[in-house]
Amino acid sequence: MDPHAVNQLLELIRGTTLNWVGPLTQHGIELFNDLVIISLAWNMGKLAISRAIPEEYFAALVVQSMTYGIFYFILTNSEYLATVVTSSFRMAADEVSGFNLMNPTNMLLAGLKFVYPIITNVTVLGVLTGQGALNVLVALIIVLCFAWAAFLQVAAIIESYVIMACSSLFIGFTGSEFTREFGMGVIKEIMAIGAKLFVIQVITGIVDMVARQWAGQFDAGTEGGILALLMGVLVMVGLIHALPGLAAAFIRGGGWSVAAGLNHAVQQFQSAVGTVAGSLVQAGQGGLGMLQLGSAAKEAAQVSSGGGGGGGSIGAQLALMGQAYGGQAVTEAAASSTAGRAARSLRMDTAKRVAASDSMNSGVN
Predict the structure, then answer these.
(1) Number of other residues whose CB lies within 10 A of the CB of residue 296
(2) Sign of the CA dihedral with 100 first, then 104, 107, and 113 last
(3) Do 199 and 303 sit in the same domain of this protein?
(4) Residue where a domain stops, chosen among 252, 277, 302
(5) Which of 71, 242, 249, 270 has CB 3.0 to 4.6 Å from 254, enough for a Cys bridge?
(6) Smallest Cα–Cα separation from 295: which of 337, 323, 276?
(7) Percent of the chain with pLDDT over 70
(8) Together in a domain, 120 and 215
């Protein structure tokens, strides 16, 4: 199969996506106009309810007209602007990597440069004896690795074609402040794809340079040399897989997700510590209140017991109640300060009974 067939496939897909631009742009304009009408009615209605003066109406119309004008220009020229953005990233990568275009065929040819020295001197007898079998196995793994790298390139390029063709439809959501975030997300995605293509192309240039150097220095006669070459290829393909997505994440805003996650975790920890501390304070207050209530009940029991035979049974009950409250001071700590208030109320009742008892004793004497 001709390696250049991959490039022909990309050209076919590019031509197909270009046919989408006209109809999708028309739908995007219709969506934009509908959302603009809704947004204007909403904003003018708010001004009318607030009894705004004519100058406020004029200022709102000027600001919205400028905003809608900018987004309408982006909408009607979205495919061209998206192509300019992605092309600028690729032109910058051209100067760094040495490639005129990001070509998946170049990646496949770079893989063949690695494989050729490995299988040049392999014979059927060598495969049967073991050394040739290792060469064939490593060559197969390297071919699969570079095929995967070429697939990543093809997927990124096709993604850029689809996003550029469909961008006008989604930018139509910028007609209202309620849905503008969707349109802005597409604009950020175009920038992210450009950054992704830039990184892929730069790393592809590095891989091609390494392939040219190693092809003349590689010793296919030793197992150590073969395995070292395999490890190097795996590392380079891993970079092609990981770094472009990281570059795109910084444009989209997801590159700081780790820091944001840590910040959120710290805030959650602080909130949890505050909650636990508040619970402990409430528990301490509740425990202290229960102990106070138990002590007050014991004092009331002693007063009632000393007041006469009729108060003996009441005193015993109050003593039992005091012991019960004292024993539950720890297990019922979550009762907050309600028990403390009950203790104060019980002490006041006890003081009143003592005063009444003293006055009765004084009258008898």
Answers:
(1) 22
(2) negative
(3) no
(4) 252
(5) 249
(6) 323
(7) 61
(8) yes
* For the chain, percent of residues with pLDDT exceeding 90: 15
CB distance 113 to 211 below 8 Å: yes
Residues 117, 162, single domain; the answer is yes
**How does pLDDT run across 235-253, given as a tens digit for each residue?**
888 888 888 888 788 777 7
**Do residues 281 and 232 share a domain?**
no
Examine the fold and report which residue of 252, 272, 296 is the final residue of a domain before the chain moves on: 252
Q: Looking at the structure, tell me whether residues 62 and 199 fall in a common domain.
A: yes
* Residue 220 DSSP symbol: T
pTM of the prediction?
0.60
Total number of domains in the chain: 2
What is the extent of the structural domain holding 84? 5-252
pLDDT of amino acid 286: 52
33-41 — which CB contacts under 8 Å span 24+ positions? Answer: 33/175, 34/175, 35/172, 35/173, 35/174, 35/175, 35/176, 35/179, 36/68, 36/175, 36/176, 38/176, 39/64, 39/175, 39/176, 39/177, 39/178, 40/64
Tens digits of residue pLDDT in 179-209: 988 888 898 889 988 888 888 888 888 877 7
From residue 209, give the alpha-carbon distance in Å to each of 106, 108, 199, 220, 222: 11, 14, 16, 19, 23
